[in-house]
Amino acid sequence: MNKKVTIYTDGACSGNPGAGGWGAVLFYKDTMKEISGFQDNTTNNQMELTAAIMALEKLKVACDVDLYSDSAYLVNAFNEDWITKWQMNGFRNANKKPVQNADLWQRLIEYNNFHNITWIKVKGHADNKYNNRCDELATGEIAKHQK
């Protein structure tokens, strides 16, 4: 039986593109771990995807994961099967243009194939304390790196 892990993620950007931060909160049994990071010259969507990648990277064995994000871009790509369509079309979207952030999506696909992930959309900047904490971590990274 797989370990059960709950993850909350969020990304933020000051300017789009601009300085970016990401944050994640991971739960396993009674343990909570917070992680965050910064990237210069990035986009909000890249930070949303990076938050999920960095959180999933922490899991060393296949797990059952509930991953919560306020990013419709991230959650819908898996739940509405955009990923499969992109893969079938050589990572081109419905307009035959290259899918943006393909490198990040490919990493997420690898994690999605390794783990049993349930992608869950939460309302951003609302009453979900862990989504709010991820936002604090992400915006805190931006603040730390701006002079």
Integer-rounded radius of gyration: 15 Å
What amount of the residues lies in strands? 25-35%
* Average predicted confidence as pLDDT: 95
Distance between the termini: 48 Å
The structure class reads: alpha/beta
Task: Name the strands of the widest sheet in spatial order.
Answer: 3-2-1-4-5
* Percent of residues in helices: 40-55%
The tally of beta strands, per DSSP, is 5
> Main sheet?
5 strands, mixed
| Element order: H for helix, E for strand | EEEHEHHHEH
pLDDT < 50 runs, ≥5 residues: none
Number of helical segments?
5
Gross morphology is: globular
How would you describe this structure to a colleague?
The protein is an alpha/beta fold and 147 residues long. It has five helices and five strands. It has a five-stranded mixed sheet. α1 runs parallel beside α4. The longest helix is centred in the C-terminal third of the chain and has 17 residues, at 129-145. The termini are far apart.
In short:
By secondary structure, this protein is an alpha/beta fold. It contains five helices and five strands, in the order βββαβαααβα. Strand 2 and strand 3 form a beta hairpin.
Keywords:
single chain; 147 residues; alpha/beta; five-stranded mixed sheet; 5 helices; 40% helix
